[in-house]
Amino acid sequence: MIRDFRSGDAPAMVNLLTTQFPAEEALLGTRPEMFFRVVRRVMRWDARLMFGFLRLLGRPVFRLLVFEDDARLVGTTLLTFPAGAVYLSMVVVDPAVRRRGYARALLERAAELAQRMRRRYLVLDVLTDNTPARTLYEDRLGYRPLREVAFMVREHPEEVGAERTTLAPGIRRFEERDNAALVALARAQTPPEVAEVLPVPRRLLADARTTDRIFESRTEAWVVDRGSGPEALAVATWSSGREAAHLSDPIVAASADPALVSELFRTAVAWCGARRAVRVMSSVPQYNARGRAALEREGFHEALSTWTLYRPVA
Fold it and tell me: Where in the chain is the domain with CATH 3.40.630.30?
């Protein structure tokens, strides 16, 4: 039986996520106690009322589906809702009951929901070397490769120095007025076939406040600006629930001064280090060569590779 997540599912969910994604969890370092706190928060009546209201407005935040077999949670997937698509994360089934069609059933239910919501595409990520999963998605369910994404990692962020109390000339904090120029830069670096499925959002940090409230996280953003508007953006997110902090996919204009871009990312990494993050991660599509090069100059290296796959809903 497929149903929505309930608060009592939390222990089984934590066990699945921490044991069945070993490569990812080795980097993320999820702390189970934080997951339980998040569950308690999102299941409160006021949070459920807010999420229901947003769903009625056509702006759903997420939906967490589980597969129950003989009163036991044996599978799950998380649905989020970028413009025009349904994004499936954490698609996992307990090894003890695999090859019974449970993963396919979860994906088919997601497709039904996407059709009901009039979304055009289903999207998910899979490790490049996960051959069984890719066979299921591509050969049996009709998913197609969209983009390759590298998980870039920088260990020991505290080594870049103290948090910047005074920003270097040419670096400043992100302001809402920067959004239009940065969106234009992001769209210019996104291939048309990717933009068709996963368009750059109209507001880059629109969901940061809601996400921070749910996950007890903090988000900060900085730009390179030499007086003519933003030329690069770094967005850092830290949560006490994970060892790793996160940098968003970098936006770097061809005109940006490499020295200032390096200082931009050192500023973001130092901010993460000041919050005792063990490492900093960033998911960077292979087509974002300037962003990847900027991170590599600051000690990031590729730790994992994934493929984003998609299929039309209809």
Answer: 2-119, 152-304
- Angle in degrees, CA 255, 261, 263, rounded to 5: 150
Band (20; pLDDT cuts 50, 70, 90): confident
Place of tokens 């009592």: 8
Superfamily covering domain 152-304: Gcn5-related N-acetyltransferase (GNAT) (3.40.630.30)
User: Topology of domain 2-119, per CATH?
Assistant: Aminopeptidase (3.40.630)
* Cβ-contact 201, 181 below 8 angstroms: no
Helix, strand, coil shares of the chain, percent, nearest 5, are 40, 30, 30
Residues 6+ apart with CB under 8 A from 68: 1, 2, 3, 74
pTM above 0.85, yes or no: yes
What confidence tens digit (pLDDT) does each residue in 94-118 have? 988 888 888 889 999 999 989 988 8
